[in-house]
Amino acid sequence: MQYKIMFVDDEEQNLFLMEKIVDWEELGFRVCGMALDGLEGIEVFEETDPDVVFVDIRMEEMDGLTLIEELQKKGKNAVFVIVTAYDEFSYAKKAIELGAKNYLLKPIDRQELIPMMNTIKNELDEKSLQEKNSSLLKSELNNRIVTKVFMQIEEHLSKKDQQIDISELEQVLGDKVYFYFEVFSQDEPLDELVKTVKDWKTQYVVPSYDCLYCIALESDRKEIEAEFEKLIRYAKGKIYFMGMYEGFTKSSELAEIFKKAYSKRYECFYDNKSRIYGENDSIMTGDDSDYAAKLPGDEAVRNLVYKAERENMQEYLKRLIKNYTQKAINPSLVTDQMIELLIEIKSQLTQVYKDRAFFILRHQNIWNLYKVRTVRRLGTLMDRVICEASVDIENIIENKGNYSLMSRITDYIHQNCMSPAFSATEVADEVNLSRNYFLKIFKENMGMVFGDYVTKIRMDKAKELLKNTDITVYSISLEVGYESQYHFSRKFKSLYGVSPIEYRKM
């Protein structure tokens, strides 16, 4: 990193010599200004904002020490190097009091100057790194707070009693005037869009499912709008939308603005032209009529279920999306029908494949469907869902997954339960169930609780080893998943009425 340096001396010859005495750029500095007295020095300082200032002490208009005092009163921070022909303690003492720790006598000795400048550069590097790290840490913390608040607001829309804590947000935003805007696209990957929007003087960018929630200073509104217009000018066929909303000074106002935006953004659902819109713009491209597609029992659904005919299902989806587009159906109705379609598929899968169908479509986040902003995005998402379901069905048909859920569970337990760290959570994760639900269905299907089942397997193995081998009880306890011989022996005796040693002798 290169730092700026300036010289203040009332003799032009000295200024020339200081500029030429070393290769400043090689040392990591760039000469940014010179001044012939203290008054001019203040002006040059304010224009150039140097990191290091060489100051002659004795000057007519304003001496060097007074110059340093005046700059410090103005809150100017720099490294000051005192240069003087007078080796007087009083000057040195005053300079030190002002924070000028570097003191050079004229004529300046290069052998003394270079090590001093290396030290100054190292100190500036360290200070810069600390400031950068501090700034990054603060920025990261603030981003987390803003993200958390947006997630709370989102959740509040679906759970009306959900409380929104804005106290931390108030500390982050302070009393400045901000405005809220959203950016989303039918074509651009969200992570790429984030990079673009962050370069627009945007204070905070929070990626949601397929939309960016953004906060920027009100003073930057026109510049950000211009950046968006530049983006769509060179979009090369890609479609972008930006919703811009009123300014706010209180963090509590953000939730209400977000609600307006949440409803408004759906109006771009069928739009095929990039645009900027505000909360009062009317941009809905279609009517709000009801529409009911024929979903339950549809032949395409049955084909998917019985034959995993992916192409037929994809073609069906295309027709459905095209129908929505032509009739400009209310987006919320479209989303409802997509969910109804998934439910029907799941229902028929369960009827045909019983518990083998448990995992198909289980991981689809229905909430994501509700957050889709464009018809093109909806079609892409549903197409992916159908493809994933088809692969799972094909696996079942080819007997790659042709065993029941409980068979999978018990097989996994038998293969892994001898580890001391083995737990119900591990098994639940393996079969993609919550721990509580896993324990519930395990007991319902096996007639005993999970812990007793694992203990039985371990103890059966222990009895086999006790009868058929000579290995020690301690080694057996380790082999069947107990880290303590005491606990193993105690459990064994509680189950069989005798200790492991007594059992071996029987």
UniProtKB/TrEMBL annotation:
Residue stretches in coiled coil: none
Modified sites of kind 4-aspartylphosphate: D56
GO terms under biological process: phosphorelay signal transduction system
Annotated GO MF terms: DNA-binding transcription factor activity; sequence-specific DNA binding
Gene3D superfamilies linked to this entry: 3.40.50.2300, Homeodomain-like
InterPro entries in alphabetical order: CheY-like_superfamily, Homeodomain-like_sf, HTH_AraC, HTH_AraC-typ_CS, Sig_transdc_resp-reg_receiver, Tscrpt_reg_AraC-type_HTH
Domain (Response regulatory) ranges: 4-121
Protein function: May play the central regulatory role in sporulation. It may be an element of the effector pathway responsible for the activation of sporulation genes in response to nutritional stress. Spo0A may act in concert with spo0H (a sigma factor) to control the expression of some genes that are critical to the sporulation process.
Protein name: Stage 0 sporulation protein A homolog
Originating species: Agathobacter rectalis
Upper taxonomic lineage: Bacteria, Bacillati, Bacillota, Clostridia, Lachnospirales
